Structures are given as structure tokens and as C-alpha cells.
User: Fold this.
Amino acid sequence: MMSTLAERQMQFLFALRSKGVTDARVLTAMERTDRALFVKGHFADRAYDDMPLPIACGQTISQPSVVGLMTQALQVQPRDKVLEVGTGSGYQAAILSHLARRVYTVDRHKTLMRDARAIFTKLDITNLTAFTADGSFGLPDQAPFDRILVTAAAEDPPGPLLAQLKVGGIMVLPVGQSDSVQQLIRVSRTDTGFEYEEIRPVRFVPLLEGLGKD
Ligand code: SAH
Assistant:
């Protein structure tokens, strides 16, 4: 039986909660961000399913429960300046824009950037700036950041991103070889160094060097 849009959205939120996304602010931000806007063509039908979906440039929009768990692990505070590396569809960045004071997001593909920017404009999101750039180098002009979220997998946390994290700041990112299981980790910067915690196994596209050829 076909379910209505409202029912599908309810199921979507229920699925998030059942997978461990329990933070009320994160759930509200996700409720306010319609994933269907970020998924194009025939995959739009699957926008409320808890699965990653293909987007342009051979990339993917992450699984909603993984987006929720990453956002929750990031513990974004209302006054935070946040950097996201890997804009992709723009879905994660739009969610972050509801939680933070200011969000910067970068992607190496200008086609993805163009599509994501069009959605940010349509949604009238004003505290979000999106750039085409190689995010492994962070954004030196806007640094330091309270929070950094990387949505592509590197073998290790990139040095420039560690350097651009404030003391007391948190970075969440997948690490590991691109074609095997990666670990989602949380890095906290303290007065004396960095603390690392494993969150869960995940699978992300690789963090690649340089700009895309599009
Ligand atoms: N957060 C996205 C999903 C990201 S998929 C969403 O909500 O839809 C991972 C993205 O990381 C891809 O779009 C890919 O182009 C981008 N990426 C990979 N390496 C990168 C790099 N070095 N700098 C910036 N973006 C990168």
C-alpha cells in the first residue's frame, strides 16, 4: 500500500530514532531539512529511505541515520563556526546550518557545488557559504573552527584540518582505506593535544586530492 508523504516523513524520523539518533536538536534540524530536495530524478522516490543514494559526479548522499549520528557526535553549539568537507548534495550542510551560527562547506566538484548552492538559495539559508576547493587543506582564511565534519574517508585525519580546529573543538570523520571498512572517529582538541574515539564502522567515498575535472 502506498503511504502518504506525511507518513513517509514520520517513518523517516522513526527510523532515525531507532538507529540511535536521539538528540532533540539534531532530530528537529533533520525534520526541517527535506531530503527529497537533495536527491534528483528517479531516486527522489527513495529520499525517505534510510540508504545512501547516488548524486552527480559518481558521488553519494549519505544514509540519513549516518548523517544523524555524525551530526550528533559533532555536538554543534548555537554559536559555533563549522566547516564541512564534502558538500556533495548539500544535505548535511543544510542540517548543520540549523544548528550552528555559521557553516562553511567545500567540495572538489563544481557541478555538485552549483547544484547545492541553488538549493541553499531556494531554502533561503543565509548562514552557509559554499566553495569549490580541495577540503584536505581546510579553509585557512576562515579558520579556526569550533567543529569540523568530513564526509569523505581519508587514511588519517588531514594535518591542516587538525591545525584549523580550535582548542576545545571537535572533528568527526571517517578514516581508513577507501575500499574496506572505515571507522567513524571523533577527534577532540585539548590544551595539550588530540583525543581520538572510535564511533562506529562506516563506508564513505574517498577524500581525493585536487579539484574534480568537471
Ligand atoms: N555530505 C554530502 C555527502 C558527501 S559524499 C551530502 O550531504 O550529500 C563526499 C563528497 O566529498 C563528494 O561530493 C566528493 O566530491 C567530496 N570530496 C572528496 N574529496 C574531497 C576533497 N579533497 N575536498 C573537497 N571535497 C571532497
User: Anything to note?
Assistant: The radius of gyration is 16 Å. Residues 4-202 form a domain with the Rossmann fold fold (CATH 3.40.50.150).
